Amino acid sequence: MILAAGLRKSFGGFEAVRGIDVDVRRGEAFGFLGPNGAGKSSTMRMIAAVSPVSGGTLRILGLDPATDGPQIRARIGVCPQEDTLDTEISVRDNLYVYGRYFGLPRGEVRQRVDELLEFVQLTEKANAMVDDLSGGMKRRLTIARSLINRPEVLLLDEPTTGLDPQARHVVWDRLFRLKQQGVTLVLTTHYMDEAEQLADRLVVMDKGVIVAEGSPLSLIAEHSTREVAELRFGVGENEQHASKVEDLADRVEVLPDRLLLYTADGEETVAKVHERGLTPAATLVRRSTLEDVFLRLTGRTLVD
């Protein structure tokens, strides 16, 4: 569905995407994971055929965005990072007007609008104005709008940024249903749990390059341990305690507010810390996540 080789994007003297290779297969959910400024959105804009490629090759649905931009845009859906809804018209009309942009017949658009309102659970809000919607409803309406042309590929740039946990789960459910219907999903996110929930396969980007690729589980297995023990000491004390516990774990990361001990058995590791007479102000044992993978690969957290 998407094939990139040595893909580059430059803005003047700044190279935002520095020669990446990407292969997205039909029907999968593919994720770009990384911090702000990693090059995710620049890559998505090239895939959406709205930003020219600076170097390398890119094919979308077998087409070249440099020459086949209109044909590509007619067959994909784009859910941008910011909601760009028309606040002057109703929920229903937001979908209807957008459908007419694609040249769809009026009757077909009206039927499609009803289908999508039901799909994103906004039928009861069909005649409401956009300003009357909650953040989660606006996000679902934006997703519905991106589906009006029955796209083969749906691009989602940070699909749940700013939503509360309940609204995020509703959006995840809708996206999972789309994938079951055969729509290929390509998303960017800086939420680790979102990537783990939605992506079959993902790449981790940092500073314009891909630093790892695989399924969420395979990346965690390859680059981290099964569990992590988090230790919080007093302000300014975490670094000085690191040397006292480094032999208890496969790896120790020192963060400003805590120590991360990477180990196969977190509870056993915490017990050994206490046996040495160390008393952290707080402890937490959890399984490894994609954030731990990112910390290992880049030396910084995703929110940096």
TrEMBL record:
Keyword annotations from UniProtKB, A to Z: Antibiotic resistance, ATP-binding, Cell membrane, Membrane, Nucleotide-binding, Translocase, Transport
Any GO BP: response to antibiotic
Gene3D superfamilies listed in its UniProt record: P-loop containing nucleotide triphosphate hydrolases
Compartments it resides in: Cell membrane
Residue span(s) of domain ABC transporter: 2-232
Superkingdom of origin: Bacteria
Annotated family: Belongs to the ABC transporter superfamily.
Name of protein: ATP-binding cassette domain-containing protein
Organism: Nocardioides agri
